[in-house]
Amino acid sequence: MPRYSTRRRVAFTPEQMFALVADIERYPEFLPLCESLVIKSRENRGSETVLIATMGIGYKAIRERFTTRVTLQPDVRTILVEYLDGPFKRLENRWRFIEAQGGCEVDFFIDYEFRSMALGLLMGAMFDTAFRRFADAFEQRARIVYRSAVISPGGV
Fold first, then answer.
1. Residue 152: inside a domain
2. For the residues of 74-141, what is the DSSP string, one character each?
3. N or C: which end of the chain has fewer CB within 10 A?
4. In what helix (H) or strand (E) does residue 15 lie, and over which residues does it extend?
5. Is residue 155, in this structure, part of any structural domain at all?
């Protein structure tokens, strides 16, 4: 039952980081292992937006696809990802963006288990490495997207 969580401070606002992570269609441009991402549906539910998305992942000769429900909650700066279909037995992912002096704290959590033990053995270590690189990938992406809007260390 692999799980990974991290919390790190970045020099961007919670709103900027929320928008960056919520822009899931851009993931193939910068996210480790992500080869494709297709939004199958988008539904506004008051202040929340619910997406159904299929992500294609790959490493060397291995290719898999999985579908998730992504709930964007801008009012509480939270993104929830729930597993719907694919090679996992379960997958739960959560992002929270917490205001902090000079930027925000990004809280990332993922808990997953592959349906097949063989696939878990084959891809498990690679997934662990990729998830540990996610925070770096998003922070680097923020530097590119918001390069002229970095918050100074002394405050906003």
1. no
2. GGGTEEEEEEEESSEEEEEEEEEEEEETTEEEEEEEEEEEESSHHHHHHHHHHHHHHHHHHHHHHHHH
3. N
4. helix 14-22
5. no
**How many domains, in total, are found in the chain?**
1
Contact 103, 12 (CB under 8 A): yes
Q: What angle do CA 105, 109, 114 make, to 5 degrees?
A: 160
Cα–Cα distance, 51 to 65 (Å, whole number):
16
Report if residue 27 sits inside a domain.
Answer: yes
> Contact at 8 Å (CB) between 131 and 125?
no
What's the pLDDT tens digit per position in 66-114? 999 999 999 999 999 999 999 999 999 999 999 999 999 999 999 988 8
Smallest CA-to-CA distance from 82 within 65, 74, 94, 64 is with: 94
Say what the pLDDT of residue 155 is. 44
CA distance 35 to 33: 6
Residue 5's identity, in one-letter code, is: S
8 Å CB contact between 99 and 88: no
For residue 65, what is the enclosing H or E element? strand 62-73
User: CATH code at 65?
Assistant: 3.30.530.20
Q: Could you tell me if residue 153 is inside a domain?
A: no
The two beta strands, 62-73 and 78-85, are antiparallel
Q: How far is CA 55 from the centre of its chain?
A: 11
